[in-house]
Amino acid sequence: MRSWKNHVRGELQQRDQTEKLPFIGVFTSLSQMEERFEFRKTCLDDVQSKSLDRGGREVGKDTRLLHLQLRESEHLAEKLSQTVSDLTTVLYLKEAELQYWQSRVSHFRQEALSLAKGSNTMKATLSEFEYTVECQSKELAALRTEQKGINQALEQACREKEELLQRWMEEKREEADRLNKYNAAQERWQRFAKQLKKHLHNARTKEFVPIVTSSWCGEAEMPTSVIQRINNTYRGHSEHNHV
Amino acid sequence: MADDKDVLRDVWFGRIPTCFLLNQDEVTEREAEPYYLLLPRVSYLTLVTDKVKKHFHKVIRTDDAEEMWFEYEGTPLKWHYPIGVLFDLHASNTVLPWSITVHFKNFPERDLLHCPSHSVIEAHFMSSIKEADALKHKSQVVNDMQKKDHKQLWMGLQNDKFDQFWAMNRKLMEYPTEDGGFRFIPFRIYQHSLHTFIATFLLCFVPVSAVCSYCSDTRSLSSPTLSDRPFIQKQFRPVSPEGHVHTLGDLLKEVYPVALPNEGGPKRFQVVIHGIEPLLETPLQWLSEHLSHPDSFLHICVIPVPSD
């Protein structure tokens, strides 16, 4: 029970303990006694006035007492009938209230039934969704595993590709070196050939003069020393190249 | 819906023991004895004091008697305020029974409304109910009622019939479930007399002797209540637009923050409804359904904390 509600209940009871309960007995008794006194006074006055009306003879004390008792009984009977009437009214009101609350109970029962039905439907739907979620979770896990494998294969392929690329690069580097060496050798041969040609040309030029001189004598003939020098030079370059 | 019926019954059957004394200035044929009565907190003075009038009419000269009116320690008691509100506002710390002085002369025209018959009380009561329903339901519920239903409300109050009254009043306490409460809460906040408020405020700063001197000087002033504004009444929802349930503390913070103690400071005022101090966290909707007076208003009294 909520504390603020309990607090109000407790305070109201405390208030009545202070303000109402100590006085209700005395005040109620006083009020009833005053009411009875007033009533008896009225009855007595009435009886006395009636007795005087009947020719001035005063009625005896017992008769007055009987009159008073009769009137008081009538008054009490009237009050009782009023109380009965009030209680009957209260009874009707309670019955009407009971019908009202019964109709509200019925209404809330209907509402509870429809809510329970709706709740069951939603529970079934919920379990279906839970099953679907579970299946999809499993699928997802399988797909993730597959993806992991594929990623690993991809990594492997990338590594192999990288290795191949490195090897190819290495091969190309070696081929380039070979080509460079071949080109360098070619260049040297060409330079050598050029030198030889130059030498030959120079030798021919030098020998031509003596040949030209000897030709004045006869056939043109290269001196033997020049030919040996040319052959030695050629042999030396070719051995050098083959190394 | 007002489901806590025990609280409803305790509120309805609250009583204040009262002793009615005839004013000494009244001319009497013999000595007037006091009249004792248990007054219903939820009713009105002029509705329940026919016996008082009859009692004192026996001793005074009826030729000289004017309209009966009541006073407590010099303050005329407004009959159109519920009896419990008058007691909490003026005499909550007094020794019981509450002593009220009865007058038959010098009616205070400036302070009190005339009440020549019970039909005036009925008109005032029904007017309050309609005003409250205008705030709660845009008058839809009270307008849907038949005249006999209105009569049942009045007769229930007049004859002190709890079941008869609530058989009809429960309709005025219903609301659509999706709304979470009434449209606005019908409430009125009453403050104690102005000079008492000032005296309480001054006690925080000046000696008691100076305050007593002030009180004796100002007590002769007329209109002891705030004449321009006898009570505070504003539109206030039981639930905020965000769905936050408003409490009594929220209401006071919004419309009358003086009533709340400062943080860490002493408590200066009591917030009293039907003679009790509900906790500030009590939901306002529940208070309106269960602690309203029969006129559907939540009458809240803010009084200084007793010094003793």
From TrEMBL, chain A:
Keywords: Coiled coil. It holds the Pfam family ATG16. Residues 140-185 form a coiled coil. The keyword Coiled coil applies. The keyword Coiled coil applies. Residues 66-180 form the Autophagy-related protein domain. InterPro entries: Autophagy-rel_prot_16_dom (IPR013923). This is Autophagy-related protein 16. It comes from Dissostichus eleginoides.
From TrEMBL, chain B:
One of its GO terms (biological process) is piecemeal microautophagy of the nucleus. Residues 185-302 form the Autophagy protein ATG5 UblB domain. It is a peripheral membrane protein. Signal peptide: none annotated. Keywords: Acetylation, Apoptosis, Autophagy, Cytoplasm, Immunity, Isopeptide bond, Membrane, Ubl conjugation. It is found in: Cytoplasm; Preautophagosomal structure membrane. The keyword Thylakoid does not apply. Residues 11-104 form the Autophagy protein ATG5 UblA domain. GO terms for molecular function: Atg8-family ligase activity. InterPro entries: Atg5 (IPR007239), ATG5_HBR (IPR048940), Atg5_HR (IPR042526), ATG5_UblA (IPR048939), Atg5_UblA_dom_sf (IPR042527), ATG5_UblB (IPR048318). GO terms for cellular component: Atg12-Atg5-Atg16 complex; autophagosome; mitochondria-associated endoplasmic reticulum membrane contact site; phagophore; phagophore assembly site membrane. It comes from the Eukaryota. Residues 120-174 form the Autophagy protein ATG5 alpha-helical bundle region domain. Its main location: cytoplasm. Conjugated with ATG12. Forms a conjugate with ATG12. Part of the minor complex composed of 4 sets of ATG12-ATG5 and ATG16L1 (400 kDa); this complex interacts with ATG3 leading to disruption of ATG7 interaction and promotion of ATG8-like proteins lipidation. Forms an 800-kDa complex composed of ATG12-ATG5 and ATG16L2. The ATG12-ATG5 conjugate interacts with RAB33A; this interaction is bridged by ATG16L1 and promotes ATG12-ATG5-ATG16L1 complex recruitment to phagophores. Interacts with TECPR1; the interaction is direct and does not take place when ATG16L1 is associated with the ATG5-ATG12 conjugate. Involved in autophagic vesicle formation. Belongs to the ATG5 family. This is Autophagy protein 5. It comes from Dissostichus eleginoides. The lineage of its organism: Eukaryota, Metazoa, Chordata, Craniata, Vertebrata.
